[in-house]
Amino acid sequence: MPRNLNNEKWFNDIANILQELRDTKQQKEEEKDREIKDNMDQEIFKEIDKEFNNGQLNFINFILTKYKLENNANIDYNTIKNNYLDKKKFIKHLKELIKYYHPDKCPKNTKEEKEKYWIYHEITSRLNRIYSEFKC
């Protein structure tokens, strides 16, 4: 019968130390990522904000044009525009866009990939705002 190590003090001590090491490593990685964002050209984020403030459809057209993804070939702006007044269809398109632009889809191995991660993070946060407005 296997022994339950969770009741052993030495095992819990080692598990706690290991968790602290993981937390420290993760915190350092997050600090590096944040530093990359802080050192990026802030005009990119200002442009995203500006386009978001110009209206939902303008923002969607902007991201589909400027930040075209390889895997979003089946997302067409005109289709989204035509379905804007149909709440269910528009929400479906928003979910698709959120899925495609979600930052977790971006690898974060190089500086360029980390910058792309932050851009997609901003885009997804705006798409989520639009989604929550329509969902209500």
Tell me, what's the shape?
Answer: elongated
pLDDT < 50 stretches: none
Q: Got a strand count?
A: 0
Distance between the termini: 54 Å
Largest sheet: none
Query: Helical element count?
Result: 6
Report the oligomer. Answer: single chain
Total number of distinct structural domains:
2
Tell me the structural class.
mainly alpha
Q: Topology, pairings included?
A:
Elements: H1 9-39, H2 42-53, H3 56-66, H4 77-82, H5 87-101, H6 111-135
Helix pairs in contact: 2-3, 2-6, 5-6
Short key terms for the protein model shown above:
2 domains, 136 residues, single chain, 0% strand, mainly alpha, 6 helices
Short note summarizing the structure:
The protein is an all-alpha fold and about 140 residues long. Helices cover about 75% and strands about 0% of the residues.
Task: Give a verbal description of the structure.
- The structure is a single chain.
- The protein has about 140 residues and is mainly α.
- The chain has helices spanning about 10-40, 40-55, 55-65, 75-80, 85-100, 110-135.
- Helix 2 runs parallel beside helix 6 and helix 5 (about 85-100) packs antiparallel against helix 6 (about 110-135).
- The mean pLDDT is about 85.
